[in-house]
């Protein structure tokens, strides 16, 4: 019997018409998910159907304007005249016109044209979210339009949940700046699960991504100036004589700048192939780590062993650990504070004692083992304790930490500053930190979390914000900075890799920044899996290659130099710990040296006796190695003479060593090298 082939069915060719119709119905029903129709989620009016939400009529105005020369005949113009308390207080919004399933791929585009201001960007933030609390968001994308002409922006994302028709909403937030922006050509289509997200275009980018962007040359010059130094190695033997012509190899083994990551103690200490790979990446890729959750108050108090064992393991391998954190002073999440702390909010003396006891227990346990601590985490956003106890109590936490661990560098750690759309968070952080310092708070440095997603701060703007926060420029109240929780949670891996490269370059170039730590590196052990450096199968992603190319190729030093006639060997390289190999005859002397700002190194070297070589000819040339300076060539007509005579000639030095040329002797003579005082 002949058959017609289908991927999953063998169908008899000879069927009654009724049977065939039934069979076709089964096929259609069984394979409907593979033929998902594209469904628009916007009402028939498209862009014009979005309504303006605003605090009052004076805050913003909306109008529909005609458009010529584009595929859409009308656009919506919104003029933001007064900044609201939150960007979402001024927004265009529309409920979805059809249902959405969890995991569906949604894609669309919008055209923007900046009308005002005349320079700089006009900002529109696209948001797809649940149409009600808790407003779970599947898309957050900030579009900076600064061309002043109609520009298309494409976007695609996966719905995080299922929504009935009108159960979700699409918003365009416009409350970031005083501006006038025209918007048109909006589409938003549900493609179901027929194609993967990677098949759709995402026009997420940032200013300064271009290979010839002006900021690059300035950043590279700053790296040369701020991150490198000249190293001088003075080679003298035990008798105090210069050792010339000695090969010296310098190899950077640990950067002075921190390149690190958050790690999980549970994974670090586990047994298995994945944990072996996990530990291998930590020791090979990073020179600093932070425990992601294990030192947080509720976690550590419930079970201190993982953190203690992890710190021990890392310390045995010479990897410093950041302390994160001593207190997270809010109640928005149950993992900020132990469950028995909020009931004490009505009894401030007991609350004070509870907090101080926690600080004492932790800092007594780790004193001298952790070089730095996030004393307080996110105090600008989590103000429950400050609201009860006052800002002076926040200042007292830093003073208590200083008393308990005087050598530790004390940080205030915050988010929503360099990664935000505007500078407001950067200004607020600087103001808050200055207020604490006015109270005598020993804040040594500021930690900037740097969690990026729908908006990528341009490198030029990033550098300006680092100036603002650190105090570079006018004023004397300055702060060292550390990027403490860096990640880029976007699906476009090319943009992710480029921004990893450019963010690292900008941060490394800035004199106030002391390090950059990722907030995790492996997809299976990351709070935002698509932000990881390594896939689940440990294949490095493009952003991992961007990281390693900079840290282990562009920003490393391995060089060979030769000592001069004065015994000096000079090199320029990145600051950090070096393996210095001095190659002497028949032996190599290897030392580990920390080269900071223009460092001199004077190793202890043995006296190496030279061998005298004689090259006969019309004039005899006497040679010996350059490392043997301070020697005088002498002659005698007897080998057992008690008195030897200095030759009539001076030794000269070249790259081949010391040499003296003399007329050929007319009788047998003996020659030797004798060293005097240095």
Question: What is the level-2 CATH architecture name of the largest domain?
Answer: Alpha-Beta Barrel
Classification by helices and strands: alpha/beta
What Rg do the Cα atoms give?
35 Å
Task: Quickly count the domains.
Answer: 4
**Can you tell me the overall shape?**
elongated
Report the average pLDDT across residues: 92
Q: What's the tally of helices? A: 13
**Total strand segments:** 36
CATH fold-level assignment of the largest domain: TIM Barrel
Keywords:
678 residues; alpha/beta; TIM Barrel; eight-stranded parallel beta barrel; disordered N terminus
Description:
The chain is an alpha/beta fold. It has 4 domains: 3-34, no CATH class; 39-199, Sandwich (Jelly Rolls), CATH 2.60.120; 258-540, Glycosidases (TIM Barrel), CATH 3.20.20; 613-675, Sandwich (Immunoglobulin-like), CATH 2.60.40. Helix content is 23%, strand content 32%. The chain is built from 13 helices and 36 strands. The strands form 8 sheets. Strands 16-17-18-19-20-21-23-24 form an 8-stranded parallel beta barrel, surrounded by 5 helices. Strand 23 (481-488), helix 12 and strand 24 (513-518) form a beta-alpha-beta unit. The chain starts with a strand and ends with a strand.
């Amino acid at each position: 019997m002949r058959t017609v082939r289908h991927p999953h069915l063998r169908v008899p060719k000879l069927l009654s018409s009724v049977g065939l119709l039934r069979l076709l119905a089964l096929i259609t029903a069984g394979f409907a998910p593979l033929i998902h129709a594209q469904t628009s989620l916007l009402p028939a009016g498209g862009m014009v159907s979005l309504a303006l939400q605003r605090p009052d009529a004076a805050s913003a105005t909306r109008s529909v304007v005609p458009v010529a020369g584009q595929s859409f005949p009308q656009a919506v113009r919104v003029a933001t005249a007064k900044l609201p308390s939150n960007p979402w207080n001024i927004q265009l919004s529309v409920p979805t016109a059809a249902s959405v399933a969890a995991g569906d791929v949604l894609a669309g585009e919008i055209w923007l044209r900046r009308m005002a201001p005349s320079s700089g960007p006009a900002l529109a933030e696209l948001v797809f979210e649940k149409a009600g609390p808790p407003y779970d968001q599947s898309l957050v994308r900030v579009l900076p339009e600064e061309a002043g002409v109609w520009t298309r922006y494409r976007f695609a994302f996966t719905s995080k949940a299922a929504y009935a028709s009108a159960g979700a909403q699409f918003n365009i937030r416009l409350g970031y700046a005083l501006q006038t922006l025209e918007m048109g050509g909006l589409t938003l289509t549900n493609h179901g699960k027929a194609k993967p997200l990677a098949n759709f275009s995402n026009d997420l980018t940032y200013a300064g991504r271009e290979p010839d962007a002006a900021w690059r040359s300035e950043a590279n010059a700053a790296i040369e100036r701020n991150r490198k130094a000249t190293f001088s190695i003075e080679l003298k033997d035990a008798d105090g004589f210069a050792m010339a012509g000695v090969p010296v190899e310098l190899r950077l083994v640990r950067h002075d700048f921190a390149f690190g990551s958050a790690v999980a103690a549970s994974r670090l200490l586990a047994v298995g192939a994945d944990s072996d790979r996990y530990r291998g990446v930590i020791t090979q890729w990073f020179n600093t780590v932070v425990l992601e959750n294990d030192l947080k108050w509720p976690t550590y108090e419930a079970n201190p062993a993982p953190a203690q064992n992890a710190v021990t393991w890392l310390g045995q391998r010479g990897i410093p650990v950041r302390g994160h954190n001593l207190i997270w002073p809010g109640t928005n999440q149950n993992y900020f504070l132990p469950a028995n702390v909020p009931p004490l909010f009505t009894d401030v003396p007991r609350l004070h004692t509870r907090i101080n006891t926690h600080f004492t227990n932790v800092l007594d346990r780790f004193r001298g083992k952790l070089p730095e601590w996030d004393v307080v985490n996110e105090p600008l956003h989590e103000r429950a304790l400050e609201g009860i106890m006052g800002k002076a109590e926040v200042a007292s936490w830093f003073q208590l930490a200083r008393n308990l661990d005087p050598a530790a560098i004390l940080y205030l750690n915050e988010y929503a500053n360099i990664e935000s759309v505007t500078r407001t968070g950067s200004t607020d952080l600087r103001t808050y930190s200055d207020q604490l310092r006015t109270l005598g708070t020993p804040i040594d440095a500021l930690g900037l979390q740097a969690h990026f997603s729908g908006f990528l701060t341009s490198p030029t703007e990033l550098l300006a914000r680092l100036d603002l926060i650190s105090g570079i420029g006018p004023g004397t109240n300055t702060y060292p900075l550390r990027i403490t929780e860096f990640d880029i949670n976007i699906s476009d891996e090319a943009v992710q890799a480029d921004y990893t490269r450019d963010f690292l370059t900008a941060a490394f170039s800035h004199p106030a920044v002391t390090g950059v730590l990722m907030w995790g590196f492996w997809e299976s052990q990351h709070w935002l899996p698509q932000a990881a450096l390594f896939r689940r199968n440990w294949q490095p992603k493009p952003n991992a290659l961007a990281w390693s190319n900079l840290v282990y190729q562009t920003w490393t030093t391995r060089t060979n130099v030769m000592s001069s006639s004065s015994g000096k060997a000079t090199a320029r390289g990145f600051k950090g710990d070096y393996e210095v190999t001095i190659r002497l005859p028949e032996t190599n002397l290897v030392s580990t040296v920390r080269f900071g700002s223009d460092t001199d190194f004077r190793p202890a070297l043995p006296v190496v006796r030279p061998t005298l070589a004689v090259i006969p000819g019309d004039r005899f040339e006497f040679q010996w190695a350059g490392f043997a300076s301070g020697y005088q060539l002498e002659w005698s007509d007897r080998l057992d003479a008690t008195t030897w005579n200095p030759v009539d000639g001076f030794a000269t030095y070249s790259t081949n060593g010391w040499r003296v040329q003399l007329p050929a002797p007319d009788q047998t003579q003996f020659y030797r090298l004798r060293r005097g005082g240095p």
